[in-house]
Amino acid sequence: MEDQQFLESDWDYCVVLDACRYDVFSDIYEDYLEGTLEKRWSTGSSTPEWAYRTFEGEYDIAYFSGNPFINDLGIPLNELKWGASCDYEWSATDHISDVFDVWKSGWDDDLGTVPPESLAEAFHENSAAVERADRTVLHYMQPHAPYLSRGKGQKLKQIQKGIRRQEEAENTPEGDSGALSSLGDSIRPKVESRLEDSELAQKAGLWLELDPAELVRNGTRDAALELYEENLRIALESVSELIPELDGKVIVTADHGEAFGEEGVWEHHIETHIPPLMEVPWLEVQ
User: How many domains are there within the chain?
Assistant: First the structure.
């Protein structure tokens, strides 16, 4: 299997579907898109790892980001106090010329996420930046949870709240946060690491996004996979409507996949290099 080679490959526009498994994509993509599909091996099993290992230099790219880890804040990933803890000293503004924070401008409070149409709106509103850039990336949040049909996303809401708190903290005088805050910052990575090692904790995080009745009826894996496929279909329908407007070579891929209990792993975590998380689609659209 070929490595993803995201930046080394030839394309003008790249659609990134967040947390999109190769196998689920391959089963349904022909309902929406035509093209040549390959299976490729990603550079990371989560967005922070993928971004850190993919964007190592400086690139003239208009990047429309539905994912808050790739943002225009200028805060390195290893200094973020929300989401997954990591040691990556990387920020998008050091590597990508134009980052558009669609996760902020196109946020839907009812859904608890960034719906696909927000990416298209941001793209249309910033056509001049697209014209200036060498290449353009549209990073959709789907099929990543929360699941749009439920309209009750929880996890991304917590991330967005964390972003706002950190932005406020960056603007307060040094020393105002107090000793308890510093202590929390030091122990948080250790606590999160322990939780990520626990299969039960991983499943519990996913349960936030599922209907309790479906959980009882179908079990965690089947209930989650059904909603996950539906999320992917919603995203692909939106992508299929936008692609005719893109003048150039278009690729559809993913930053990483999603696990549903394989090898005791649920969702996706940094440096967990198992096939469900690392095998991603690479579709050259016709």
Answer: 1
Q: In the structure encoding, which two tokens stand for residue 146, read together?
A: 């929360």
* Domain span at 259: 2-285
Q: Are 86 and 78 in contact (CB under 8 A)?
A: yes
pLDDT reading at 212 higher than 80: no
Q: Environment class of residue 4 by beta-carbon count within 10 Å: exposed (0-12), middle (13-18) or buried (19+)? A: buried
pLDDT > 60? residue 191: no
For the domain that residue 217 is a member of, what is the CATH number?
3.40.720
In this prediction the pTM is: 0.82
Q: Tokens 């020393």 appear where? A: 175
Query: What gap in Å lies between CA 68 and CA 101, rounded to an integer?
Result: 7
Give me the pLDDT at residue 192, please.
43
Q: At what angle do helices 199-207 and 212-242 cross, to 10 degrees?
A: 70
The predicted pLDDT at position 149 comes to: 76
Tens-place pLDDT, residues 111-127: 888 999 999 999 999 99
The string of DSSP letters for the chain reads: -EE--TTTS--SEEEEETT--HHHHHHHGGGT--EEEEEEE-S-SSHHHHHHHH--S-EEEEEEESSTTS-SS---GGG--SSS-------GGGTEEEEEEHHHHT-BTTTTB--HHHHHHHHHHTHHHHHHSSEEEEEE-TTSSSPTTT----HHHHHHHHHHHHHHHHTSPTTTTHHHHHHHHHHHHHHHHHHHT-HHHHHHHHHTTS-HHHHHHHHHHHHHHHHHHHHHHHHHHHHHHHGGG--S-EEEE-S---EESGGG-EE--TT---HHHHEEEEEEE-
Torsion region of 21: left, alpha or beta (phi above 0 gives left; psi -120 to 50 gives alpha)? beta
Report pLDDT digits (tens) over 130-160: 999 999 999 999 999 888 876 554 455 555 5
